Amino acid sequence: VALVLAKMQPPWGSGLAFLYAHCLAFLMPACFLLAGKRSISVKALTSLGNIGQRSVLGCTFEPDIWMGSIAIRWAKAGVAGLVHEFQGGKDHLQEQDALFQGRTAVFADQVIGGNASLELRDVQLSDAGTYQCSVTTARGSGAAVLQYRTGAFSTPKVRVENGSSGDTLQCEAPRWFPRPAVRWTAYSDAGECLPHVANTSYELNAENITLKVVSFLRNVTANATYTCVIENNIAKATGNIKVTDFSITRGTNLQLVNLNAESVSSSLPACHWMLLLLPYLLSV
Ligand SMILES: *[C@@H]1O[C@H](CO)[C@@H](O)[C@H](O)[C@H]1NC(C)=O
Ligand SMILES: *[C@@H]1O[C@H](CO)[C@@H](O)[C@H](O)[C@H]1NC(C)=O
Ligand SMILES: *[C@@H]1O[C@H](CO)[C@@H](O)[C@H](O)[C@H]1NC(C)=O
Ligand SMILES: *[C@@H]1O[C@H](CO)[C@@H](O)[C@H](O)[C@H]1NC(C)=O
Ligand SMILES: *[C@@H]1O[C@H](CO)[C@@H](O)[C@H](O)[C@H]1NC(C)=O
Ligand SMILES: *[C@@H]1O[C@H](CO)[C@@H](O)[C@H](O)[C@H]1NC(C)=O
Predict the structure, then answer these.
(1) Ligand 2 centre and the CA of 167: distance in Å?
(2) Number of compact structural domains in the chain
(3) Which parts of 49-126 fold into alpha helices (H)?
(4) Using CB atoms within 10 A of its CB, is residue 117 exposed (0-12), middle (13-18) or buried (19+)?
């Protein structure tokens, strides 16, 4: 509401501004009555899906102790049917779009605590897009929108291969999409950066979307730590290997890009409409 007020300067003299503000104070409760419901806060979290796997589209709302009154609706921009609907403690899938059949669920036992997140199984590349999470409870209703991104990512395995021309490291990750960049870092125990030359190849997997990534680092020396870094616009994964004369120590890490974004919104459509009419009503 503050946002709407800031955008709308009264089009007449400042003398009437007080009257304008005063009327708003009286109109707001009327708005709630007209809308029939108060608004509740709903939050959606930017979410990421790994092709072929299961994933969660995050959404939370102000909890309500009466399960019977809670309705959750998930919709996707550009898709005619619903993604998922849950009402009175049960799924209602009559209006579900065929695209999502058999692949969705809400966490029924968590709904009472304000968790409206959607589980999506067998994620497809085409599932990416804008999703809306709408929730209605006895206290009111609200909705929030999230951007869902899809791709493929996996942790790499790094191993040492003995060759005739010195040892070679091999870094291999089974599934990536879009095509990631691969780089290596090499540090001696003394902390100096070692020169290195890598050779990376990409191989299309059987489902024709994801790529198998293989990178070789030749001429590896002992007493050094090598890290293979695989990165695209959705994820960054690293594989470490520390090579000494006597032992090999490994480590891996996978981190997803940009998962902190959160969108918050609550809808009051009837009130927006009233506020927009206000200048007109006052000038009559
Ligand atoms: C909702 O519950 C599911 C299942 O316990 C969990 O994986 C998910 O992180 C929860 N979502 C939120 C936003 O709390
Ligand atoms: C590699 O060569 C070293 C000696 O140079 C040997 O100890 C080691 O077992 C070899 N590893 C493999 C996998 O062949
Ligand atoms: C990269 O590795 C492949 C497979 O081992 C090999 O055929 C190719 O010659 C290598 N290229 C370079 C520049 O080392
Ligand atoms: C992958 O693409 C190849 C050629 O483009 C095609 O022959 C094959 O049927 C495709 N496989 C799948 C699973 O779509
Ligand atoms: C491998 O390393 C040795 C010394 O560490 C160096 O003399 C040689 O040029 C290197 N070979 C390649 C192909 O980088
Ligand atoms: C690696 O470090 C060990 C112990 O510090 C040392 O004995 C060995 O000579 C070193 N090897 C190389 C190739 O520098």
Answers:
(1) 9
(2) 3
(3) none
(4) buried
60 lines ligand 1 (CB under 6 A): yes
141 and 105 both lie in a single domain: yes
Would the CB of 56 count as within 6 Å of ligand 1? yes
Ligand nearest to C-alpha 133: 1
Nearest ligand to the CA atom of 218: 5
The structure's pTM equals 0.72
Give the closest ligand to the alpha carbon of residue 206: 4
Between CA 54 and CA 146 the distance in angstroms is 18
Helix H or strand E encompassing 277: helix 269-283
Q: Tell me the C-alpha distance between 90 and 92, whole Å.
A: 6
**Can you tell me which atom of ligand 4 is nearest the CA of 208?**
1
Beta strand 38-39 with 140-151 is: parallel
27 pLDDT band, cuts 50/70/90, is very low
200, 181 Cβ separation under 8 angstroms: no
CA 45 to ligand 1: nearest atom: 13
Q: What is the pLDDT of residues 156-213, one digit of tens each?
A: 999 888 766 678 899 999 999 999 999 999 998 888 888 888 999 999 999 999 999 9
Q: In the structure encoding, which two tokens stand for residue 18, read together? A: 């007080």
51: domain CATH number is 2.60.40.10
What angle in degrees, to the nearest 10, is found between the helix axes of 17-35 and 269-283?
140
Instruction: Give the three-class secondary structure for 32.
Output: helix
SS3 151: strand
Q: Is residue 202 part of a domain?
A: yes
- Report the residue among 216, 217, 218, 219 best suited for mutation to probe ligand 3: largest number of ligand atoms under 8 A from its CB: 216
What is the domain extent for residue 23?
A: 2-32
Nearest residue by C-alpha to atom 1 in ligand 5: 219
Would you say 149 and 235 are in contact if contact means Cβ atoms under 8 Å apart?
Answer: no
